[in-house]
Amino acid sequence: MNARHDIRFALFDIAHTTLVVPQTTDSFSRYLPTDQQAKAWGWRLVHAGRQNVPANSIYPSKGHPLDYLFDKDGRRTLDEYQIVYISRGAGTFESERQTKTTVRAGEAMLLFPGEWHQYQPLAESGWSEYWVGFRGREADRVMQSFFSAETPICTVGQSDALIQHFDQILHWLQQSVLAKEQILASHVPLALAFLKSASLTKDSPQSKDNELVLQAKATMLANLETNTDLEALAQQLGVSYSRFRFAFKKQTGYAPRAFENIIKLNRARDLLLRERLSVSETANALGFSTVYYFSRAFKKQFSQSPQQWLKKHLESV
To answer: Is pTM, for the whole model, over 0.85?
Structure first.
């Protein structure tokens, strides 16, 4: 798949999931009741969600069941496994067998039943998180065979794919279909496979570049309302800007700023057509400095002004 297609498909998934989330594009969660057929399946998805936590916000947010609340010391112990993936920002994690450590974007925390843990975003950065909770005899077998509470922090080698996978889980949580619990449960092994795959290739230079670019793309996708400070992003990723730009262009075929602008312009079409924002509102929502600059960039990318493109597509709906 070429870079241009990669951008289009990434934006399709994000736009698609935005349409089905009933609360906001940032946060959604759902907890499922016990299902006997799902138990027999060997995997059972207990709950899943995503949450955007701005800097200097109270954490955790309200609205979770009592069994999932942290105690007065900031700890909790669950009777299930969880994957908590950080797609933006940074924070800290500590558990019964893991001393306090920093967790960064592109890393996942694995929670184990019967093991106390605590985690929270850094006040100055906040974070965005996805999570799934799961149980089952097959879950026990896989977790005991391939993962350990001694090393609960996993670097994710395919961040974009994992985020899209989480979004698919959240999509299915909102559908009314037969065998829904089995469909949801069957997503859990693939999420774990994404975590495991990174440990097999993380030491190769190509893999490090892949992860660098994936984390950069995830940051851009999560902050479409602003223009990414690319030099600060490179510093956050632990490389020089020239090294970052070289790796990014090699992986995608685009310089970082050009890639970000294409993402924004693809998202602009969705805002204009599906969310019915005006051209001015769309430009503002995507961080363009002026409507003129947005319209000029749109026409250069799609060979039509925003108004011309919208009129054509409204007529074909």
So the answer is: no
Write down the residue that tokens 């089905």 correspond to. Answer: 20
Q: Are residues 36 and 139 in the same domain?
A: yes
pLDDT of the chain, 317 residues: tens digit per residue: 444 444 433 333 333 333 333 333 468 888 888 766 667 788 999 999 999 999 999 998 887 888 889 999 999 999 999 999 999 999 999 999 999 999 999 999 999 999 999 999 999 999 999 999 999 999 999 999 889 999 999 998 778 889 999 999 999 998 888 888 888 989 999 999 989 877 655 545 566 787 888 889 888 888 888 899 999 999 988 899 999 999 999 888 999 999 999 999 999 998 998 888 999 999 999 999 899 999 999 999 999 999 999 998 887 65
Within-domain flag for 25: yes
- Identify whether the C-beta of residue 27 lies closer than 8 Å to the C-beta of residue 50: yes
Of the residues 153, 180, 201, the one at which a domain ends: 201
- CA 201/CA 212 separation, integer angstroms: 14
Parent domain of 211 = 203-317
In angstroms, the CA 268 to CA 276 distance is 10
Q: Which of these three, 201, 233, 261, is where a domain ends?
A: 201
Query: CATH no. for residue 161?
Result: 2.60.120.280
Element (H, E) at 1: none
- For residue 256, whether the previous peptide bond is cis, meaning omega lies within 30 degrees of 0, is no
